[in-house]
Amino acid sequence: MSTAAEIFLTSAKIAPEVFKLRPDYRALLMVVEGILPGPSDTISENLLQEAESSAREAIQKQPITEIPHIAAWREAYKSFGAKPKKERNSLESLMRRAEGGLPRVNRLTDIYNAISIKHQVPLGGEDLDTYSGFPLLIRANGQEKFETSSGGEIVTELPPAGEVVWCDKAGVTCRRWNWRQCTRTALSDATTRVLFILDALEPCSDGALEAAADELFQVLSKFSPEARTYRRPMSAL
């Protein structure tokens, strides 16, 4: 492991208050370096089409809200005051959008969205070249700043006290655990270094997280053969 990646991953923290909320929560942090930058391509498009088919098949078998891992995240959102009918976890949001077609954002985002659906795991990506310090998962105190966009303009929000948020030194990088990412650390066609965060609650297993991470890196390696990856699983144990 590179020294910088080791320091970054070992410095990541999850506040005890988060585990008090959900003792079954686990995160797999995966740093990938050496990604060749570039726009969406046939690799990302094929993955998205496969994910759309997978989502439609799953929805035909049972309502979205009864899919086990989605149901678990809906309960987690309720536990810190979010309204899951309005503020949906990232996996549920993608599953609902898949029926009408997933968004095409950029190659890296498209790839991790497809992997998220295929493995039924909430998954996000942060551009490490715009990251500040180390990742922290906390319950907000109401003073942390979150930058997002509205109508083409950058706006700043203050997540309410108690909300579960990922942060770095510069502010909130993702609201409501895995609901919405800030504009500052979003991936782009120029991104070469990424922190991927994979989330799990029961009944999702540690093996399922690892399988999703394995496939994600396998796909990235197709167009970035020199890419390197480093991982750190985090849990209450």
Report on this model:
This protein is α+β, with helices and mostly antiparallel strands. It has seven helices and eleven strands. The chain has helices spanning 3-11, 16-21, 42-61, 68-79, 90-98, 107-119, 206-223, and strands spanning 13-14, 26-33, 123-127, 136-139, 146-150, 153-157, 164-168, 171-175, 180-181, 194-200, 228-235. The strands form three sheets. The chain has a five-stranded mixed β-sheet with strand order 1-4-7-8-9. A hairpin with a 4-residue loop joins strand 8 and strand 9. It is globular, with a radius of gyration of 17 Å.
Percent strand? 15-25%
Structural class: alpha+beta
Poorly predicted ranges (pLDDT <50, ≥5 residues)?
none
Q: Output the helix-strand order.
A: HEHEHHHHEEEEEEEEHE
Cα-based radius of gyration, to the nearest Å: 17 Å
How would a textbook summarize the main sheet? 5 strands, mixed
Number of helices: 7
Classify the helix fraction into a percent range: 25-40%
Cross-sheet strand order for the largest sheet:
1-4-7-8-9
Shape: globular
- Mean pLDDT reading: 96
Number of strands: 11
First and last CA, distance: 23 Å
* Assembly category: single chain
